[in-house]
Amino acid sequence: MRSRAGLIGAAAVVTGALVACGLDVVGGADAVEADDPAAGPARPAPEPIDELGDDDGGAAPTFDASLPDETPLDGGPSDAGPCSASITENFAQGLGAWVQYGGVARGVSGNNAYAQLIAPDAKSRAAGLFWVPPAGVKATSFRASFSYYVATPYRYWYMGDGLTFAWLTSTGGSALGAGAVTGAGLGLQPGITGSAFALDGWQNSSIGDVAEPSLSVLGIDPARGNPGSYAWHLAKKGPYRRSDVYDAWRRIEIVVANGKATVRFRFSPNGTATTLFDDVTVDAANVVALGFTAATGGADAMGFFVDTVSIELIDATCD
């Protein structure tokens, strides 16, 4: 496992490798602060109650290592066409295929390119990285897989906030990232509809969070308030061991079909799949954007990174 000092050094390299691409959208400095205290007493770590099974696929890659399927640095994204839309991405060529907000950056550490949503120690941030299907393409079902890395600060009992993979069915007429909510809002913005899978590192008891770190499927409903202001869990589990979900590349696989979501976890890309959630009822409307959000609040800030992304619309039709 890479040391925190080394990871923070890698984050500095990432900061210097910002890529100016995608749409000019709102987030980060203009974000709305959700309920997340700026200071507080140390809290004892809760005993884990959920297990993620055993890994028989070998050790998870270190932060510097190329993940399996990482192509050379001229690999780039691919799109399967207008009516069978998909994207595979390892960020080797940058972030040009993605709409981004909140200071998302491409970085290269060792032999690995990745996307940094939020750097370690960056408090009160909201960030997002979305793929928008081609114009005229409609789909309600998809397959997605990705690797994520969450870097933790020194005070494990006082850190936040979280990371999502979100599939949106409406942006409410606003640009992606407009007013994105920090802290409990997990980087999502007001006015959107859809669903998300979330890794949450801060327990907001007022909205029904279980003890952290937790995993959940969220329903995003603007009629109920801004993201993170209401009980939005469609399914939730936790807490998990910190070493199971943080400070190593982990793999998530999501299938949404016929308004039902299934989510699986792997310790390493070739490891055994553990089903986290099965047949969770989610928004069944056409998706308009799919991607990642992350947020920090006033607590010690985690760092959030994603890599080796695959998204395929499996029932796509064209106008």
Model description:
- The protein has 319 residues and is mostly beta strands.
- The chain has a single domain (4-318), classed as Jelly Rolls.
- It is built from two helices and 20 strands.
- The chain has helices at 4-15, 242-245; strands spanning 78-79, 86-89, 99-101, 105-109, 112-118, 126-131, 137-138, 142-151, 159-160, 162-170, 193-200, 214-220, 233-237, 250-257, 260-266, 274-281, 289-295, 300-301, 303-313, 317-318.
- Strands 1, 2, 4, 5, 8, 14, 15, 16 and 19 form a nine-stranded antiparallel sheet that branches. A seven-stranded antiparallel sheet has the order 3-6-17-10-11-12-13, with no helix packed on it.
- A hairpin with a 2-residue loop joins strand 14 (250-257) and strand 15.
- The protein is globular and about 50 Å long.
- The chain starts with a helix and ends with a strand.
- Residues 1-42 and 72-76 have low confidence and may be disordered.
